[in-house]
Write a structure and sequence with these properties.
Blueprint (H helix, E strand, L loop, with lengths): L1 H6 L2 H4 L5 H8 L5 H30 L11 H12 L3 H34 L2 H4 L7 H15 L3 H30 L9 H10 L4 H8 L6 H6 L1 H4 L1 H29 L7 H4 L6 H32 L8 E3 L8 E3 H18 L2 H5 L4 H21 L4 H23 L7 H29 L5 H11 L2 E10 L8 H10 L1 E14 L10 E5 L4 E9 L6 H11 L8 E11 L5 H13 L3 H4 L7 E9 L1
Parallel strand pairs: 3-4, 3-7, 4-6, 7-8
Antiparallel strand pairs: 1-2, 5-6
Helix pairs in contact: 3-11, 4-10, 4-14, 5-6, 5-19, 6-8, 6-16, 6-17, 6-19, 6-21, 8-16, 8-17, 9-14, 9-16, 11-20, 19-20, 21-25
Length: about 600
């Protein structure tokens, strides 16, 4: 639970730095009475948004839609795909929904570090206005440090970050509680009618208000995406017992302060602290916002890992950072991609207030997709009561659409940015999926059936040499091109031939006793089907070790891996359309490295595939 506090809740836990301030400014309130009226309405909207969107939707409902303990939009997509696999239209709709949800999450993973760190560093203005020119440079330094430590993994980071965030939430609660004790009337804002009434009384700016209030719930989707790192129960307990109460106390404490001193609107969070505690609070906020950024970054690594396993993006180097938790991964290329994006945002927008306009669209879009996929899975696959949960999911989806719609009005003010990032990621994923299907189809064209090939061996009787040859094949029923090329040019076959095919199943993990399926064929040929979960790292040598223990007692020194290294080329008429796919295919990690095949045992045989 302490590790979850350190990794999962950083994003939503640092929202008090800016959410209430931006929301009240969105109302247009500037004078004492106007600010006091706005405080009650905004606090009510924030409190009930946290209850509906985070507590009810994510913590109590959607996090139960796990794929053997794993969460995130691709875990949901895999679950729904089991039902839609036989219907091409529904399968593509599910695939696009999952890709769009992941693309929006990547956009959020860029904006969250930028706005969180900037909002914390801007507290230096409370100390001295002369520090303002240095805010951007300090923020860039903190961000560089954050991305530099990502390679150590969430397990090690959680052990360090957990105690820091526990102190952070304790300070949030204490600062808020002092102000609430002095002004207990602020608790009236718990009345949901206070928020609804305020919206109806301010119809002219209600869209801007809701677009700002959503800042308080950003990070809710990270709870679900990071579920595989720490598990359902620790995250639920941490939210209900520590994080949620601390956030409410701090927001209401800020509200109580603003009612007694409207001038504190320049930075109500830091004004909660007495003067002597300001510098320690600034340092703690620096650390908390760095940790907040880590929450969505680790979620992005999980999403990228699942995307690779499910075939949505090309193969990437994925490093597992924990021997105990297989869901903890680090993806260096995603780390660099996000780092460059965050640096660009800080340099481009310069203040958290400017970035607030760009924030929200990606978050609310991803939340809406989570709701749709979870509703389908829970009601139509898992069999939850339709009469109870269809209206429930309908109401939750309506809230998502309300937040999404209000944020779309910020498009010209910076909201275009997450949409552009999401569109770029979505196009890449769809391009890869479509190109990959065309490549698999091209491989089948002119392929030699395995049964027919084995029959020809009776007549040709090629020379057999000692040892075991393992050919990586896309399908067990066809002869790999690498084998045909080897036979054609070298005129030999190994004494034992193993045709190894890999399958990524819709479950995150596969037990070792269910991993291998071996079919013994004629002429000492053997088809070995290896199954992996979509959260697992394909490791061929571990599969070979299982194969040695159960089927063959060969020496590892006598094994040769034959890997096809195909070059994809496009027909003249398709060159422009397929150019992005071909570029990604050539840039992706090679099969030898990806499958962890020892280089001194690998033989790569090239060929051309025309699309």
């Amino acid at each position: 639970m302490l590790g979850a506090i350190g990794v999962v809740f950083g994003d939503i836990g640092t929202s008090p730095l800016y959410a209430l301030k931006v929301s009240i400014e969105a109302t247009g309130a500037r004078q004492g009475n106007e600010i006091a009226q706005a405080v009650y309405g905004i606090l009510s909207l924030i409190a009930w948004s946290l209850i509906f969107v985070v507590t009810i939707k994510y913590v109590l409902i959607i996090m139960r839609a796990d794929n053997n303990g794993e969460g995130g939009v691709f875990a949901l997509t895999a679950l729904v795909s089991q039902r839609t696999a036989k219907h091409p239209g529904a399968r593509w709709a599910t695939m696009v929904a999952g890709a769009l949800g992941a693309a929006l999450f990547f956009g959020d993973s860029m904006i969250t570090p930028a706005i969180s760190v900037l909002s914390a560093v801007e507290g230096l203005n409370v100390l001295s206005s002369e520090l303002k020119p240095y805010i951007v440079y300090i923020a860039l330094t903190l961000i560089a440090g954050l991305f530099a430590v990502e390679r150590f993994g969430t397990a090690r980071i959680g052990k360090v970050f957990g105690p820091v965030m526990a102190v952070w939430f304790g300070v949030l609660a204490l600062l808020g509680l002092v102000q609430i004790w002095n002004h207990p009337g602020i608790l009236y804002a718990l009345n949901p009618l206070a928020g609804l009434g305020f919206l109806f009384d301010h119809k002219g700016v209600s869209i801007a208000i809701l677009g700002a209030v959503v800042l308080a719930v950003t990070g809710g989707e990270a709870l679900y995406a990071d579920m595989g790192h720490f598990g359902l129960k620790p995250i639920q307990r941490a939210w209900l017992l520590i994080v949620f109460p601390a956030l409410l106390l701090n927001y209401f404490g800020q509200g109580a302060l603003l009612i007694s001193d409207p001038s504190a609107l320049d930075n109500p969070f830091y004004r909660l602290a007495p003067q002597w505690a300001l510098i320690p609070l600034l340092l703690l906020a620096f650390m908390a916002t760095v940790i907040a950024s880590q929450a969505v970054i680790s979620g992005a690594f999980s999403i990228a890992n699942q995307a690779v396993q499910l075939g949505y993006i090309p193969r990437l180097r994925i490093k597992h950072t924990s021997a105990d938790e297989i869901g903890q991964v680090y993806v260096s290329k995603i780390n660099v991609f996000l780092f460059l994006g965050v640096i660009g945002l800080v340099l481009g927008f310069k203040t958290s207030e400017n970035l607030a306009s760009a924030y929200g669209i990606s978050v609310t879009g991803a939340m809406a997709i989570d709701t749709l996929l979870a509703a389908y899975f829970m009601v139509f696959i898992k069999g939850w009561n339709k009469f109870i949960f269809l209206p429930t999911f309908g109401l939750l989806f309506l809230v998502d659409l309300l937040f999404l719609g209000t944020n779309l009005f910020k498009f010209l003010e910076g909201g275009w940015l997450p949409i552009a990032v999401a569109a770029f990621c979505l196009v890449l994923m769809i391009t890869w999926v479509n190109g990959r299907e065309r490549l698999l189809k091209a491989r089948w064209t002119g392929a030699v059936p395995l049964n027919g090939f084995l029959e020809t061996l009776e007549a040709s009787s090629p020379h057999r040499v000692p040892g075991t040859a393992i050919f990586m094949v896309p399908h067990k029923d066809i002869v790999p091109l690498a084998l045909l090329h080897n036979l054609k040019h070298n005129k030999v076959l190994h004494e034992r031939v193993i045709l190894m095919s890999l399958e990524v199943v819709n479950s995150p993990h596969v037990k070792d006793d269910e991993r291998l399926r071996v079919t013994h064929l004629a002429h000492n040929f053997h088809a070995v089907h290896v199954r992996y979960g979509f959260m697992e790292e394909p490791h061929v040598m571990r599969a070979v070790a299982l194969l040695r223990a159960r089927e063959f007692h060969f020496s590892l020194m006598e094994i040769s891996f034959f890997v096809g290294k195909e070059k994809v080329v496009a027909k003249h008429s398709s060159a422009l359309v397929l150019a992005p796919f071909i570029f990604m295919h050539r840039a992706m990690q090679g099969a030898t490295e990806y499958f962890k095949i020892p280089f001194d045992h690998a033989i790569e045989i090239g060929g051309h595939v025309e699309l």
